[in-house]
Design a protein that fits this description.
This is Lipoprotein. It comes from Pseudomonas umsongensis. Keywords: Coiled coil. A hairpin with a 3-residue loop joins strand 10 and strand 11. Helix 1 runs antiparallel to helix 2 and helix 2 packs antiparallel against helix 4. The protein is α+β, with helices and mostly antiparallel strands. The protein is built from nine helices and 29 strands. Strands 2, 3, 4, 5, 6, 7, 8, 12 and 15 form a nine-stranded mixed beta sheet that branches. The N terminus is likely disordered. It folds into three domains: 114 residues, no CATH class; 237 residues, no CATH class; 239 residues, no CATH class. It starts with a strand and ends with a helix. The chain is globular.
Length: 609
């Protein structure tokens, strides 16, 4: 999560405010809370509403920035690995080739809704991105209309209207995880049953897309030896100001101005990645993009605002002019980037927007229907004119060779004692390919659990005799729930074992022209006979001649009837498979995870009352 000023919303910082402060930061925390209380008190004294809003926005942003800095600085250095943010670009010869793939790989799915008055449309993009590794280039997508099966065109509107009596096209309000989803809403008539089959269905979606591709991307590889030095490549330069255990402070610049076409477009040309001693990419935990000079400038502007009695256009004009002047003086940009783990090497990449290619395209996309389960006997084509690779597949497939030791090592133990009558100890692990192939036939075996007190030195002491209702073990869920009100003594330790499950997976590789019976390639679609390769036990991955795994677009199960057995499955890929890998679960073993957990202390005062 990035912290940038000026800010208009405190919400983007909330993800940073989840870790507790270490004791060494408690004084800073108290000072910050006092400062926040004083600021809120000063706000109450401002009578002019516009002035009050301006002070609240800028002052609140500065306080949130300080809070974010405190949280990031006090976060313990715990290793967590992430993905290569530039992996997708490395598959294409030029930035423009990536842009063309992004646009030409877009299609629209028809999705059933729970209501006969709604039809959902899901735009499917060839690349999945998450913060901070969002799509690398500035881009915009605007939907304009949907054409129905009766030739009627419904214009897009930014939100659904309760008073509009007609058919509407608006953003979906039911799916916050896919903000690009749309909903076609049919009019509701009180007392009249509506059959969705008789409604005109969406057949195509219209819109426009624009993507700005930079002239180039250049990466600087840096280590501690580079601290204080400026590295330059043509018009791009980077200075490693400081490199801590889990953070890097960087200044960067482009001596050429942005291309005229994007002079007013907000740009973020910096991509910073870090690796630890293993060579793996560390995940990011946040960044602060304002240096001391910038923060001092905003504090000065805040002080000026707090001295005013009334808001005026001349004041607004003066503040904006001061900000423009200050920003023009900043020849170099700053960023302090935090990572989850100890940094060994840095890869600092800059997008060069001194020259750009702006791609604009009108979209008229057919609405396709691919239900997850269908009784249709014919195979629909879904061939798109792009090739997209699955860069997560190699890491994901390491789960096929997981050992009992690796499985145990990945266990994380968390506790909750907020409710003493339902205190919990939970055992979890990061989901892997092993979990995907576990199936549903588990034999957890015994899960013995005992609670112990502690002696005067804090070591484990005697066991506690308990009634059966004092605690409950859910071996499949990996949880122990206990009621402290039923304990004759305060427990300090819990000891026992919890089951983990490990699949034995057999891998085979086939040439696309020599597939075994039950597997057939039809263009970019793999057709799987479900009787020979039943879904719970088998998974399939495809590669092309580059040796990279192709990304799967979607999969469809063709069933004998709505409740009948699966006849065959179809897996569609972005590209033409030339090699196929099959993974079969041949066995399932139970691995007992033995533990001794020091229990968190619960506050029993409220229970006693």
């Amino acid at each position: 999560m990035d912290g940038r000023l000026p800010l208009t919303s405190a919400g983007i910082f909330m993800a940073l405010l989840i870790s507790a402060c270490s004791p060494s930061d408690e004084k800073r925390q108290v000072s910050l809370e006092e400062k926040t209380a004083q600021f809120e008190k000063s706000l109450d004294a401002i009578e002019d509403p516009k002035l009050k809003d301006a002070v609240a926005e800028l002052g609140g942003s500065l306080l949130l920035l300080e809070r974010a800095q405190l949280k990031l600085d006090s976060k313990p250095v715990e290793t967590e690995y992430g993905e290569d943010a530039l992996a997708v670009l490395k598959h294409y010869p030029t930035p423009q080739a990536l842009v063309d793939t992004y646009i030409n790989g877009l299609f629209v799915l028809h999705k059933d809704s729970s209501s006969d008055y709604l039809t959902d449309l899901q735009p499917v993009f060839p690349f999945n991105f998450s913060i901070p590794a969002a799509f690398l280039f500035p881009h915009g997508l605007q939907w304009q209309s949907v054409t129905l099966s009766n030739k009627r065109v419904i214009a897009f509107q930014p939100e659904w209207s309760e008073t509009d009596p007609g058919i509407q096209l608006s953003p979906s309000s039911s799916n916050v995880t896919n903000p690009d989803d749309l909903t076609v809403t049919y009019p509701f008539i009180e007392g009249l049953d509506v059959d969705i089959k008789n409604q005109p269905q969406p057949v195509s979606l219209q819109g426009t897309v624009e993507v700005i591709a930079p002239r180039r991307l250049y990466s600087f590889d840096l280590t501690k030896k580079d601290i204080g030095q400026t590295r330059t490549n043509d018009n791009l330069s980077v200075t490693l100001v400081k490199l801590g255990d889990n953070y890097a402070e960087i200044e960067f610049s482009n001596s050429e101005p942005p291309a005229p076409e994007i002079a007013e477009t907000p740009l973020n040309p910096l991509i910073v990645q870090a690796r630890d001693a293993t060579g793996q990419f560390l995940s990011r935990s946040g960044s602060i993009n304002e240096n001391a000079a910038q923060i001092a400038f905003y504090q000065k502007q805040l002080a000026k605002l707090q001295q005013q009695k009334l808001w005026s256009e001349s004041l607004e004009k003066q503040l904006n002019e001061e900000q423009r002047t200050f920003e023009k003086q900043q020849k170099r940009h700053y960023s302090k980037v935090y990572f989850n783990g100890t940094i060994e090497t840095l890869e600092v990449s800059l997008l060069d927007f001194s020259g750009v290619t702006v791609t604009r395209k009108d979209l008229d996309l057919p609405v396709r229907r691919f239900d997850r389960h269908t009784t249709a006997k014919t195979i629909q084509p879904l061939s798109l004119p792009v090739v997209v690779y699955d860069d997560n597949a190699p890491t994901w497939l390491k789960g096929a060779t997981l050992t009992p030791e690796q499985l145990k090592k990945g266990v994380r133990i968390t506790q909750s004692v907020e409710d003493p009558s339902a205190a919990r100890v939970e055992f979890t692990h990061l989901r892997s390919f092993n979990d995907e192939l576990l199936g549903s036939s588990f034999n957890p075996g015994d899960s013995p659990v005992s609670f112990f007190t502690e002696d005067s030195s804090g070591k484990r002491d005697g066991s506690i005799e308990l009634p059966p209702e004092a605690y409950e073990v859910d071996p499949l869920g990996g949880t122990i729930t206990y009621d402290l009100n039923l304990f004759p003594q305060t427990p300090a330790f819990v000891v026992g074992s919890i089951p983990l499950f490990l699949a034995t997976v057999e891998k085979q590789t086939f040439d696309a022209h020599q597939l075994p019976k039950g597997l057939e390639l039809k263009g970019n679609a793999l057709v799987v006979d479900s009787k020979v390769f039943p879904d719970p036990d088998w998974r399939f991955f495809a590669k092309d001649d580059s040796g990279n795994y192709l990304k799967e677009i979607l999969a469809v199960s063709h069933d004998a009837s709505t409740e009948g057995p699966a006849l065959f499955a179809v897996h569609y890929f972005y590209g033409q498979p030339t090699r196929l890998e099959t993974y079969q679960r041949t066995d399932l073993a139970t691995v007992q995870y033995g533990f001794e957990v020091k229990l968190d202390k619960a506050d029993m005062s409220s229970q006693a009352q």
